[in-house]
Structures are given as structure tokens and as C-alpha cells.
Amino acid sequence: MKKMGSQKLISDRQQIEDILSKAKFIRIALSDDETPYIVPMSFGYKENAIYLHSSQKGRKIEILKKNPRVCFEAAAETELITANDPCKYNVRYRSVIGHGQAKFLEDYDEKVRGLTVLSEHYGMEGPFEFEEWKVNRLCVIKIEIERMTGKESGF
Questions:
Q1: For residues 78 and 24, is the Cβ–Cβ distance under 8 A?
Q2: Which residue from 143, 153, 150 is spatially nearest to 45, judged by alpha carbons?
Q3: Closest CA to 117 of 55, 49, 56
Q4: What are the backbone dihedrals phi and psi of residue 119, each rounded to the nearest 5 degrees, phi first?
Q5: Looking only at Cα atoms, what is the longest distance across the chain?
Q6: Is 73 exposed, middle or buried (0-12, 13-18, 19+ CB in 10 A)?
Q7: Nearest CA to 44 among 102, 128, 101, 114?
Q8: 116 — alpha (psi -120 to 50), left (phi > 0) or beta?
Q9: From CA 1, how far away is CA 141, in angstroms rounded?
Q10: 42 Rama class: left (phi>0) / alpha (psi -120 to 50) / beta
Q11: Measuring CA to CA, how many Å separate 8 from each of 12, 27, 152, 153?
């Protein structure tokens, strides 16, 4: 890890994946022409890909159809460190920031795989049986990760 002030850069892939496994949600940043848009979402991570599910309509879907490039952020083990002096407040955290391309999954089996990864991320155990009509109504998005790094502070 490379020291950056009180923050440390994490480049070890296993440590980055550990942070992703502990994170409860992810934020995805999108670009609509020149207007940024960020949204928190539930997610799953497996084999260098982030899986998301959503309604088939809405602002994020419209933006992703025009521009599939995304940035994402996930944090785990976050804690506010208080002090008598407000200037000495700090935050303890581990986080991951990455970039990738979003792809809408159309194939039923691929959508089920993505939903399975999401379900497993939140501690559910399979095998899972998803109702076909519900899967067909959902939008399942796979972010193919191009690069990601981690940071930690206060550890």
C-alpha cells in the first residue's frame, strides 16, 4: 500500500475484492451530456463485474443507453471519529473506486446469473428460483470493470 497523507492507496486485488464483499451498496456515477448524475444502488460483484438491477425505465436507464461509461464507488467499515475540536474530526473507511462499461443483459439466463450474484452478496443462499415474469420485467445491468483501486483511512 502506498501512503497518501493519512490515506493509503490499496492496489492489492484481494483487498479490493474484500472491500466490495463488505460494502452494503454502491454508487454509480453517470454522465448525461455535461450533467453528472449519481445514484446509490444495491449490487453484487463477481469475476471482475458489478451486477445491478433496476426498473426498465428512469433517468439512469436513459443515460446509460446514451453513454454506457460509468464510475462507481463502494465503501465499507465506515466510522465517524469525533473529537473536542471540530477540526480534528475524521472518517475511518475503506473504499473502492472503479470505471467500466455498463451492459444491459437481455438473455434470460444471464439475467438470472446477475440476480444470483446480487442475492448472494446480501447473504442469501441458493439455489434460487426466480419467477420468469419478474425476471423479464427487470433490467439487469452488468458493469464490466476496466480498472479499480482502493483507499483506506484511519486504519
A1: no
A2: 143
A3: 49
A4: -65, -40
A5: 56
A6: middle
A7: 114
A8: alpha
A9: 32
A10: beta
A11: 12, 21, 5, 6
Distance, in Å, from the CA atom of 99 to the CA atom of 60, rounded to the nearest integer, reads 16
Strands (E), the chain: 2-4, 7-10, 26-32, 35-41, 44-46, 49-54, 69-81, 90-105, 139-153
Contact 120, 114 (CB under 8 A): no
Return the residue matching grid coordinates 453517470.
Answer: 30
Strand partners, 81: 90
For position 35, what pLDDT does the model report? 87
Question: Among all chains, which residue has been given the C-alpha cell 463485474?
Answer: 49
Domains of the chain: 2-153 (2.30.110.10)
Is 8 in contact with 153 (CB distance < 8 Å)? yes
Reported pTM:
0.89
Express each pLDDT in 87-125 by its tens digit.
888 888 999 999 999 999 999 999 999 999 999 999 888
Report the distance separating Cα 71 and Cα 97, nearest Å.
7
Task: Tell me the residue length of the chain.
Answer: 155
In whole angstroms, what separates CA 146 from the centre of its chain?
Answer: 13
